[in-house]
Every structure is written in structure tokens, then in C-alpha cells.
């Protein structure tokens, strides 16, 4: 799976990490910014590079579920079930932290987020580090911005700040992992992500709770409403009102990118207006999720005044995508207004 060159880069990356460096590496979800959890200077460097507040916990990446007892002091039966079923894969389990996990990694929490990524480069890197070590790795972007799904995104955003970037191609999932916490044996979804809710429910015999409000926002910074945002104002608008909203923006002379998935709803002559671009997204959630962040980054660089996104279907398969778009948006249907000064921010 890995070429000889990549193989030697992985060995060099493992050496850098063991020496206290930081290495960005691919996972199946998004690229991570990795540091050895046992090295406090390296972990501090992650917070500095990302400009992330130090009380926001990091996810710990490990080579396999057999490492779980080293990093978690208690593993509920349902957590084992999920680990055995979905790892390696886009699932993070929040479990009581073992004394082997330093407090600076978990932002002072008594719990730790653990995951086994499903990417050959990430697994080879973790394998090269050995079972005694694990990698703290948040998404390799500045705090609050869009997660990177290619090595080029990491290079653009973090550049020289990171010691090394491993290129494993574009990420297969494209959205961050699903985060699951536990209250006793009840699994609670703290962040929807790469594992569909239906798949989780099936493994847990239907016993899945999705956290609401405060529970999400206090302990999961990925749940802050300003997260995952492009620099260009983004509005999330229903199929019914998108034509109207779009028309008002264009009448104001604004350059607008329209991001849709149901092409038939858009006027056929849309391409004739030079101020407008229509960006067509896949009409199924896997493809849409894979492309979303790259699309937002690309459109962010094209000098639009506004990104108008057609709300994806209200179906369980689209939950993670709807969640990220809501967090990226400054305006949604019900409070959409353009004030007298042409300000389009909500
Ligand atoms: O797919 C992913 O999860 C990617 C790749 C690189 O693995 N990582 C990622 O990390 O998205 P980050 O740091 O950008 O987001 C991690 C989320 C944060 O919202 C954090 O609060 C939450 O995980 N988290 C980590 N440890 C936690 C804990 N002990 N309790 C509650 N939330 C936790
Ligand atoms: Mg992140």
C-alpha cells in the first residue's frame, strides 16, 4: 500500500515524533497534527501552532483496540462493542483517562478521546512508534477553521510551523470522526461524523442518544457554533427560498457562489451571469462529505462576497454534513436578511 519513498518518510516521521517534533499525517477523516502524548513540549507546540486554547482536549490516536486498556482506566462493554465493530475507523470514544495519559493532552479533563484511524499511513506511523506511544492529533488547521483533507491544505494553512507533513492523498471520509461518550452503558453522540447514526444504532441495538445543547458545547469545542467556518460569509438556505435569496444578493451586485446538490432546482441560465458560479455537489452523503471541505476552501480563495448553500436533505445519513454546514453558516433561512448597508453577515 505504501511506496518505498513513503515508507522511508514514515520512518523519518516516527523519528521526528520520538524526538519531540510535530508531524501532520493523513487519516481517513481529515489530516491530523500529531505529537507524542508523553512529550509535554511537543503537545504544547500543537496548541501553539493551532492557536487553540489549552483547555480544549485532544484526540489520542493509537495503533489498535488492544491498546485501549493502556490509555483508558475503564472501558464500558458498549465501548468495546463499538471499538471492535468500527476500529480502525472514524469513531472517537470518550473514556475515563488512565494515568498514562498526561493531563495537558485532555485539557484537564478526567476523560480521554481515543481513536484508531483507518489509513495505511497513519497506521504505519503508529506502528513505527510502538505500543508504548500514542499520538495526540487534532485536525491540522488553525482553531475554528476548516479541517484539511489533503496535504496541500495543511501546507497552505500551517506551512513551516509543522516539522513534517506526510502526504497520503485526499481523505476518503472528508468529515471528522463521530465522537461517542458514555453515561454508564448508554452511548451518547457528542459530535456526529464519519460513522452514520444508523450504523451506530445497529451495533448498539438501537440505544443511541444524541447530545443536545450545553453538553455538546462545554466539552466539545468542535461543537462551538463558529467552528469549521470559511472566511467568506456562508448562508444555508432551503430549496424553497434559495432562488429568492440568490436573486436579492445578485441584485445588490454581489459575487455569489451557489453550492447545490439538486441541480434541477437551479435556473438553467445561471452560468451566464459572470458574478455567479454554480458549484454542484454530489446528491449522496458519502460523496458530499468527502468533497465539502475542499470545495469550501477552493471557493474561499475565489473572492466571492457570499457562499449560498442549498440545505442538504433532512435525513439521518446527512446529519454530520448538516451539522458542519450549520456551524459554518452565519445566516440561515429564518434569520436571513440583508440590511441597508449591504451587509450580509447575520
Ligand atoms: O476525525 C477526527 O476526529 C480528526 C482526526 C485528525 O482524527 N481529529 C479531530 O480532532 O477532529 P479535533 O481536535 O479537531 O477535534 C476533536 C474533538 C474536539 O471537539 C474535542 O473537544 C473533542 O474531540 N474531545 C477530545 N477529547 C475529549 C474529551 N475528553 N471529552 C470531550 N470531548 C473531547
Ligand atoms: Mg478540529
From TrEMBL:
<dbReference type="InterPro" id="IPR006070">
    <property type="entry name" value="Sua5-like_dom"/>
</dbReference>
<keyword id="KW-0067">ATP-binding</keyword>
<keyword id="KW-0808">Transferase</keyword>
<dbReference type="InterPro" id="IPR005145">
    <property type="entry name" value="Sua5_C"/>
</dbReference>
<dbReference type="InterPro" id="IPR010923">
    <property type="entry name" value="T(6)A37_SUA5"/>
</dbReference>
<feature type="binding site">
    <location>
        <position position="61"/>
    </location>
    <ligand>
        <name>L-threonine</name>
    </ligand>
</feature>
<dbReference type="InterPro" id="IPR017945">
    <property type="entry name" value="DHBP_synth_RibB-like_a/b_dom"/>
</dbReference>
<dbReference type="GO" id="GO:0005737">
    <property type="term" value="C:cytoplasm"/>
</dbReference>
<dbReference type="GO" id="GO:0061710">
    <property type="term" value="F:L-threonylcarbamoyladenylate synthase"/>
</dbReference>
<dbReference type="Pfam" id="PF01300">
    <property type="entry name" value="Sua5_yciO_yrdC"/>
</dbReference>
<feature type="binding site">
    <location>
        <position position="137"/>
    </location>
    <ligand>
        <name>L-threonine</name>
    </ligand>
</feature>
<dbReference type="InterPro" id="IPR038385">
    <property type="entry name" value="Sua5/YwlC_C"/>
</dbReference>
<dbReference type="GO" id="GO:0008033">
    <property type="term" value="P:tRNA processing"/>
</dbReference>
<dbReference type="GO" id="GO:0003725">
    <property type="term" value="F:double-stranded RNA binding"/>
</dbReference>
<dbReference type="Pfam" id="PF03481">
    <property type="entry name" value="Sua5_C"/>
</dbReference>
<comment type="similarity">
    <text>Belongs to the SUA5 family.</text>
</comment>
<protein>
    <recommendedName>
        <fullName>Threonylcarbamoyl-AMP synthase</fullName>
        <ecNumber>2.7.7.87</ecNumber>
    </recommendedName>
</protein>
<feature type="binding site">
    <location>
        <position position="139"/>
    </location>
    <ligand>
        <name>ATP</name>
    </ligand>
</feature>
<feature type="binding site">
    <location>
        <position position="115"/>
    </location>
    <ligand>
        <name>L-threonine</name>
    </ligand>
</feature>
<keyword id="KW-0963">Cytoplasm</keyword>
<feature type="binding site">
    <location>
        <position position="228"/>
    </location>
    <ligand>
        <name>ATP</name>
    </ligand>
</feature>
<keyword id="KW-0548">Nucleotidyltransferase</keyword>
<keyword id="KW-0819">tRNA processing</keyword>
<feature type="binding site">
    <location>
        <position position="147"/>
    </location>
    <ligand>
        <name>ATP</name>
    </ligand>
</feature>
<feature type="binding site">
    <location>
        <position position="111"/>
    </location>
    <ligand>
        <name>ATP</name>
    </ligand>
</feature>
<dbReference type="GO" id="GO:0006450">
    <property type="term" value="P:regulation of translational fidelity"/>
</dbReference>
<keyword id="KW-0547">Nucleotide-binding</keyword>
<comment type="function">
    <text>Required for the formation of a threonylcarbamoyl group on adenosine at position 37 (t(6)A37) in tRNAs that read codons beginning with adenine.</text>
</comment>
<dbReference type="GO" id="GO:0000049">
    <property type="term" value="F:tRNA binding"/>
</dbReference>
<feature type="binding site">
    <location>
        <position position="177"/>
    </location>
    <ligand>
        <name>L-threonine</name>
    </ligand>
</feature>
<dbReference type="GO" id="GO:0005524">
    <property type="term" value="F:ATP binding"/>
</dbReference>
<feature type="domain" description="YrdC-like">
    <location>
        <begin position="7"/>
        <end position="195"/>
    </location>
</feature>
<feature type="binding site">
    <location>
        <position position="29"/>
    </location>
    <ligand>
        <name>L-threonine</name>
    </ligand>
</feature>
<dbReference type="InterPro" id="IPR050156">
    <property type="entry name" value="TC-AMP_synthase_SUA5"/>
</dbReference>
<feature type="binding site">
    <location>
        <position position="191"/>
    </location>
    <ligand>
        <name>ATP</name>
    </ligand>
</feature>
<feature type="binding site">
    <location>
        <position position="52"/>
    </location>
    <ligand>
        <name>ATP</name>
    </ligand>
</feature>
Amino acid at each position: 500500500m505504501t511506496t518505498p519513498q513513503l515508507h522511508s518518510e514514515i520512518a523519518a516521521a516516527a523519528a521526528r515524533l520520538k524526538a519531540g517534533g510535530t508531524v501532520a499525517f493523513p487519516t481517513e477523516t481529515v489530516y491530523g497534527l500529531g505529537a507524542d502524548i508523553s512529550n509535554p513540549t511537543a503537545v504544547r507546540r500543537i496548541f501553539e501552532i493551532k492557536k487553540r486554547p489549552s483547555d480544549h482536549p485532544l484526540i489520542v490516536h493509537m495503533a489498535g483496540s488492544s491498546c485501549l486498556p493502556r490509555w483508558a482506566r475503564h472501558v464500558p462493554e458498549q465501548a468495546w462493542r463499538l471499538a471492535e465493530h468500527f476500529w480502525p475507523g472514524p469513531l472517537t470514544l470518550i473514556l475515563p483517562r488512565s494515568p498514562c495519559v498526561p493531563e495537558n493532552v485532555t485539557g484537564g479533563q478526567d476523560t480521554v478521546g481515543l481513536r484508531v484511524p483507518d489509513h495505511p499511513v497513519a497506521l504505519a506511523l503508529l506502528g513505527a512508534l510502538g505500543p508504548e506511544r500514542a499520538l495526540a492529533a487534532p485536525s491540522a488547521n488553525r482553531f475554528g477553521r476548516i479541517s484539511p483533507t489533503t496535504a496541500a491544505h495543511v501546507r497552505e494553512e500551517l506551512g513551516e510551523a509543522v516539522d513534517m507533513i506526510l502526504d497520503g492523498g485526499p481523505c476518503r471520509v472528508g468529515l471528522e470522526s463521530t465522537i461517542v461518550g458514555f453515561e454508564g452503558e448508554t452511548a451518547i453522540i457528542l459530535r456526529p461524523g464519519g460513522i452514520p447514526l444508523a450504523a451506530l444504532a445497529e451495533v448498539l441495538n438501537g440505544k443511541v442518544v444524541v447530545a443536545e445543547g450545553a453538553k455538546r458545547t462545554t466539552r466539545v469545542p468542535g461543537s462551538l457554533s463558529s467552528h469549521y467556518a470559511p472566511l467568506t460569509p456562508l448562508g444555508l438556505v432551503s430549496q424553497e427560498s434559495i432562488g429568492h435569496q440568490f436573486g436579492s444578493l445578485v441584485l445588490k451586485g454581489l459575487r455569489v457562489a451557489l453550492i447545490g446538490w439538486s441541480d434541477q432546482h437551479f435556473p438553467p441560465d445561471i452560468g451566464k451571469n459572470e458574478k455567479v458560479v454554480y458549484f454542484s455537489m454530489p446528491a449522496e452523503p458519502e460523496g458530499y462529505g468527502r468533497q465539502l471541505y475542499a470545495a469550501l476552501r477552493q471557493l474561499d480563495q475565489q473572492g466571492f462576497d457570499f457562499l449560498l448553500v442549498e440545505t442538504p436533505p433532512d435525513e439521518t445519513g446527512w446529519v454530520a454534513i448538516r451539522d458542519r454546514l450549520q456551524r459554518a453558516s452565519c445566516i440561515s433561512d429564518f434569520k436571513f436578511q440583508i440590511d441597508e448597508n449591504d451587509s450580509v453577515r447575520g
